[in-house]
Model the fold of this input.
Amino acid sequence: MQIIHTVSELRAWSRTRRTGGRVVGLVPTMGALHAGHASLIRAARRERDAVAVSIFVNPTQFGPNEDFSRYPRTFDADCKLAEAEGADVIFAPTVDELYPTSTTTFVEVEGLSDRLDGASRPGHFRGVATVVSKLFIAAEPDRAYFGQKDAAQVAVLRRMTEDLRLGVEIVVCPIIRDPDGLALSSRNVYLSAEERTQALSLSRAIRRVETLFTNGVTDTAVLIAAADKLIQNENKIRIDYIALVDWSTLLPVETATPGTLFAIAAYVGATRLIDNTILL
Ligand code: AMP
Done:
């Protein structure tokens, strides 16, 4: 497995693979890799892509009081995991490489970027859209793999890819969870034992809403109230949002239908966690 630090080397790698008839798959990550990231790399391998995994803690998607400086950085372990899963290349640029001094160009997906996580994290999706554009321009992938875990991010990036006619197929992979239901996240390491136990109420709320919907409950107010009640019981949790939205517009719906996104964001202690499901 090769480790590449510059855009020009990554582009050369990708072009060589494509000239050789390969399909190039990109898995964008911020590192601190876990089984969720591994599942994206495996999905790319299954498609027989030449696989590049990017590892970059992107400063522009963090707010001023967020965890950019203390975000877990585990580069050596990440390389081992990526190699074991069959990645061909790690792309690990410096901040300067992706954001040359005095950068003034950003990508903004209007409307969508202000909804769900975008409402509570102003500028977050602008940072995400900008860095993913840069990664697409550098890697020139045929396909890019993202987790449904970040469902609002998927909506923003699908729209960006479509609007800019980037020609990259967006592949969305299922949420990987610990056996007790907690969605894997690089931020789970921040949780104390007590917080981790309370955090399980998020996935319990997801399952509860899935069951209610399967049993015929479609009224958004009823579904949200059921989830809210479950989570409110936990004294270390502060709900950011509980929402039922159309997955492509991220706008609220009054009646849930198959394909509706049910999403939760909550602070567990100081740690912001998200979870979701697409109702079937
Ligand atoms: P991150 O490193 O947190 O930016 O995540 C990189 C990619 O991994 C994103 O597309 C995430 O949605 C995806 N991802 C993170 N956690 C999970 C998970 N538990 N299951 C599946 N994909 C995940």
